[in-house]
Specification:
Pfam family, one: SAVED
Strand content: 15-25%
Number of domains: 3
Distance between the termini: 56 Å
Largest sheet: 6 strands, mixed
Protein name: SAVED domain-containing protein
Length: about 500
């Protein structure tokens, strides 16, 4: 079933992706969703996606028990929509009734149930900024601003004119119009196809489901929901959904490894709670990439050591999610060096969501390696600086930092990936190969440089820093740096030092 003929229509595929965006929440612990329908024609013409809740959800100043989602996909992003589009049947690929007219029809059919429901139009297009609709839709919850639309007591006023037009075209009075608009959400400027796929892949990974590979044109979940729909299966609950996934063999095979996570970020880390119970939460010590007042990097190191000691066992295998800074990724990699006797596979955030980056991953693709440039800056100095550019070239920023600091640098080496960018590294094997290349260059230092400090600057994925940390025990004295992207902060627009090694009690 899941291997059926690929869905050819992007509109259908996009609708299926939006469905799965919500449907996967059925697998969440204590999910609020009772069941979810796909092309579930409970209310005619509001059948794209229907969500039914176990418990009533807060909406405006009341509660609702279901949401109807009308998905409108556009192949091109160069258009905007207006209030007139909501009155135009063709905007939602209908022949006779517009989105607003369909809402009016639902209202007239059952006013009580209408007031317990929300009707959503879900579109990749934006609202035209010069159109009156842009004035009426809230940026907080995408609802109509009823106070705004009710302004003006005469038909000559801007809003009075609009109310008259809407009432005439929809055959309602002003009270009915407000009642209808109260339950509507306009979700404009939603994620495009690729971004939605990326977010969905993260959800799939959280629940142990197979990901959508870029090497394939088909998406089994799109095929699956269309196949189920053809069989008349268009309403799912959590139990049935899990059973279908098992039947279709969409769950990843059970592995012997466990999961752990390191967290110092807040945004987009909610998935960790469903993915693992073993989270080292550093938010009490770290604020994003910097220390909170009163704490030291030694505190971070000790907390990570304690976490490894308590949660990870020798001769065991783990997946590790790194929702944290590059410096902390290096620290945990250093703690989990080969002598620790613990096999660890990092989970890396990519353009397709989150992926397992196993350093032993088989790859038939050629791997782009670093171009290396070495400069002698001071023949009397013992320190060495390396700059690593993977997502972007940081050579100028690092040189500027050296020029404006008190560092006495003997050798400066710039590692730049020729095809740098956010998607420059293909997989875990590639990340490991790049970390080894850096490690090999560091190993070429003369005795004089080995006695000095190695300063490391990097713009790249956490997994590379993690793998570099694993190999760092023999580096001697090391100083790491982070880049402060907030210009208003102390180090705004520049690098600043973080942790140094060796840490007390390491050896």
């Amino acid at each position: 079933m899941a291997n059926a003929v690929a869905v050819r229509d992007y509109g259908d595929q996009y609708q299926a992706l939006v469905f799965w965006k919500y449907a996967l929440d059925l697998l969440k612990k204590d999910s609020d969703i009772k069941n979810i329908g796909y092309e579930y024609d409970e209310i005619k013409s509001f059948d794209d996606i229907v969500i039914f809740y176990k418990k009533e959800q807060i909406f405006r100043n009341t509660t609702i028990d279901r949401v109807y989602i009308q998905v409108k996909f556009h192949m091109k992003q160069n258009k905007e929509f207006t209030i007139e589009n909501l009155l135009d049947p063709s905007f939602i690929d209908a022949k006779s009734e517009s989105f607003l007219q369909k809402a009016v029809n639902a209202y007239r059919k059952d006013k009580e149930q209408y007031s317990k429901s929300v009707y959503v139009i879900y579109s990749t297009w934006t609202i035209q900024h010069t159109d009156i609709l842009n004035e009426l839709i809230s940026n907080v919850d995408n609802t109509f601003d009823l106070k705004k639309i009710s302004e003006g007591t005469t038909e000559r006023s801007k809003m009075g004119k609009l109310r008259k037009e809407l009432c005439t075209k929809l055959s309602v009075n002003e009270k009915e119009l407000i009642d209808v608009l109260r339950q509507i959400r306009i979700k404009a400027n939603q994620l495009d196809f690729e971004d939605l796929k990326e977010n969905l892949n993260t959800q799939l990974m959280v629940y142990g489901l197979k990901l959508w590979s870029n090497s394939k044109n088909t998406f089994p979940y799109c095929d699956l929901i269309h196949s189920l729909n053809r069989q008349g299966i268009n309403l799912l609950d959590g139990e049935r959904l899990r059973s279908i996934f098992e039947t279709e063999e969409l769950f990843e095979s059970k592995k012997s490894n466990d999961t752990v996570a390191i967290k110092s970020f807040v945004k987009q880390t909610e998935w960790l709670d469903d993915w693992t119970e073993n989270i080292c939460d550093l938010l009490c010590i770290v604020d994003k990439r910097s220390l909170k007042k009163g704490y030291s990097w030694e505190d971070v190191f000790k907390m990570l050591e304690k976490f490894v000691r308590e949660k990870m066992k020798k001769d065991s295998e783990y997946q590790i999610a790194l929702e944290t800074s590059l410096s902390i990724s290096f620290i945990i990699g250093r703690i989990l060096n080969p002598k620790a006797g613990i096999k660890v596979i990092p989970i890396q955030k990519t353009l397709d969501g989150h992926s397992e980056w196993n350093r032993k991953e088989n790859s038939q693709q050629s791997q782009k390696m670093f171009l290396i440039k070495k400069d002698t800056l001071n023949t009397d100095a013992n320190d060495m600086v390396i700059s690593i550019g993977i997502t972007h070239d940081i050579d100028a920023d690092v040189r500027d930092f050296i020029d404006n600091s008190e560092l006495k640098v003997g050798i400066y080496e710039n590692f730049l990936l020729e095809d740098h960018g956010t998607d420059a590294i293909r997989n875990g094997a590639h990340a490991w190969a790049l970390a080894k290349q850096i490690n090999n260059e560091i190993g070429k230092r003369t005795g004089k440089l080995k006695r000095g400090t190695l300063h490391i600057f990097i713009a790249g994925p956490n997994s590379v820093m993690f793998y570099l940390g694993m190999q760092s025990i023999m580096y001697g004295k090391v100083q790491l740096y982070e880049y402060d992207v907030t210009p208003t902060q102390e180090y705004g627009g520049s690098y600043y030092p973080t942790i140094s090694f060796p840490q007390e009690g390491e050896f």
